[in-house]
Specification:
The structure holds two protein chains of two kinds. Chain A has helices at 4-7, 11-64, 129-149, 167-179, 194-198; strands spanning 70-71, 74-75, 78-79, 89-93, 97-100, 103-109, 112-113, 156-161, 184-191. Chain A is of the alpha/beta class. Chain A has a seven-stranded mixed sheet with strand order 3-9-8-4-5-6-7. A two-stranded antiparallel ribbon of chain A has the order 1-2. In chain A, helix 3 (129-149) crosses helix 4 (167-179). Chain B has two domains: 49-55 and 63-101 and 138-221, no CATH class; 103-137, no CATH class. In chain B, strands 2, 3, 4, 5, 6 and 9 form a six-stranded mixed sheet that branches. A two-stranded antiparallel ribbon of chain B has the order 7-8. The radius of gyration of chain B is 28 Å and the shape is extended. In chain B, 31% of the residues are buried. Classes of the chains: A alpha/beta, B alpha/beta. At the A-B interface, helix 2, strand 3, helix 4, strand 9 and helix 5 of A face helix 2, strand 1, helix 3, helix 4 and helix 6 of B. Strand 9 of chain A pairs antiparallel with strand 1 of chain B.
Chain lengths: 207, 225
């Protein structure tokens, strides 16, 4: 007959081993939980870094853009001009309205101003009365700002016009602006290459 | 109890970033939608006060001036230089414009009207394509060749007066300004592809800076009184 104690652990030892195993298991579980928690926080931090960088970049490009050249009813033409835009009174000619510094001034119908909105002469007149009033106000404001800052007032305006705008309307806007004592004009365009403007950019050279 | 407190001090809780993340996630798409990834530039133009077409040049009587003018019409370009309307170039109808359309099968007036209708109906892309067909019908290469010839005789002149028929689109005016702005590597081109792919000629200023050589880079608008 074999002694029971020689074959295995005593009752007390078995309980101790069980308790040890339970403790070990608990430790492993808590370690696993801690590990998983660390991983999560690392992921969130990296994501946060990326998000903040993108946010700062977008906010900067949003602030840098001085003039809006593409909208629902506005797309300015492409050009090879290299000149940088400057801060000036902005006249926007979309397909539906004329705006001065983003405030709508006069509505357009079929690319023309209603004759009732023009000066004496009606249809044939070059003077757009609401635009003239608005530009006079804008010029006065700019002149006042320049005086306050001790600078010399430059009578200039940036014209943002849709690519399909009839030439007649462009002339009317320019003429009205000259009546408001503005005489230096800049047309806003989307910078492009000659190849792209001429429609030969996609052509691949023959080998 | 004491041990638990130590652990709490040793491992501070992460700040709750969820509200900030929500804000950032909303802001990014909003900014992405509003940002336009296009480079904006400008073209300087002049228009005399009151829009007068006449110029008061003090040197007018002393020496012959070029007084270059380009009129854009649905049939092509009418070029006036040194006080006379230039005769149509070889290959163009004798009674027509100085530089006729390169593709006379295209009715540019109709194309521009159709483009306007399409854009008004909200069909932006198709409208733009139709307008481009109209614009491509003009012969910009011959216009450049002619302007280049004038430049050789009047190297100091940089002004070009631009006029157009009432309904000509602004895009055409900009394209003519592009063609007349800088000198290209050659003074004359025989192929449209070579013309559009040509590089701008550079010159060194008195200050030692390199810049593109000016052809007729000062466009002026005027209203016929």
């Amino acid at each position: 007959m074999v002694d029971k104690n020689e074959q295995g652990f005593s009752q007390e030892e078995e309980e101790w081993i069980k308790a040890q195993r339970a403790r070990e298991e608990k430790r492993q579980k808590s370690a696993a939980r801690r590990g998983a928690g660390d991983d999560n926080s690392v992921n969130i931090n990296s994501l946060m870094d990326i998000m903040v960088i993108i946010l700062v970049f977008l906010l900067k490009s949003y602030g840098d853009d001085p003039i809006k050249v593409v909208d629902e009813d506005l797309k300015v033409p492409r050009s090879t001009s290299q000149l940088e835009p400057v801060d000036a009174t902005i006249v926007t000619v979309t397909r539906r309205a004329i705006m001065v510094d983003d405030s709508p001034v006069v509505d357009l119908r079929d690319g023309a101003v209603d004759p009732s909105q023009k000066g004496s002469g009606g249809q044939s007149s070059m003077r757009i009365m609401p635009l003239l009033d608005s530009l006079n106000d804008a010029v006065e404001q700019r002149r006042g700002e320049a005086t306050l800052m001790g600078d010399e007032f430059t009578p200039e305006a940036t014209i943002i016009a849709d690519q399909i705008t009839p030439h007649r309307l462009i002339l009317e806007v320019l003429y009205t602006a000259t009546e408001a004592q503005l005489n230096q004009f800049r047309f806003a365009i989307i910078r492009s290459t000659s190849e792209s403007v001429g429609g030969v950019a996609e052509t691949t050279p023959e080998i | 109890m004491a041990r638990q407190k130590r652990e709490e001090i040793g491992q501070p809780d992460d700040p709750n970033l969820a509200p900030f993340m929500n804000l950032v996630i909303i802001l990014i798409p909003m900014l992405l939608l509003s940002v336009v990834f296009l480079e904006v530039a400008v073209i300087n133009v002049t228009m005399p006060l009151g829009g007068s077409a006449t110029t008061d040049d003090p040197d007018e009587d002393d020496k012959e001036s070029l007084d270059l003018a380009i009129a854009m019409s649905p049939n092509g370009f009418y070029v006036t230089a040194a006080g006379s309307l230039r005769q149509p170039i070889e290959g163009c109808p004798t009674q027509g414009p100085t530089i006729c359309l390169s593709d006379d099968s295209v009715n540019v007036q109709e194309r521009f009207e159709e483009a306007r209708r399409m854009m008004a109906d909200g069909n932006e892309t198709a409208g733009e394509q139709v307008m481009e067909e109209g614009l491509q019908a003009y012969n910009y290469r011959e216009l450049y060749n002619m302007l280049s010839g004038f430049k050789a005789d009047f190297p100091e002149e940089t002004t070009v007066r631009l006029t157009a028929d009432e309904n000509m689109p602004f895009a055409l005016t900009v394209r003519v300004m592009d063609v007349s702005r800088y000198r290209l590597t050659d003074d004359s081109y025989n192929s449209d592809e070579d013309f559009w792919k040509a590089d701008f000629q550079t010159e060194t200023t008195d200050a030692g800076e390199e810049q593109f050589a000016n052809l007729f880079g000062d466009p002026a608008f005027a209203v016929a009184q």
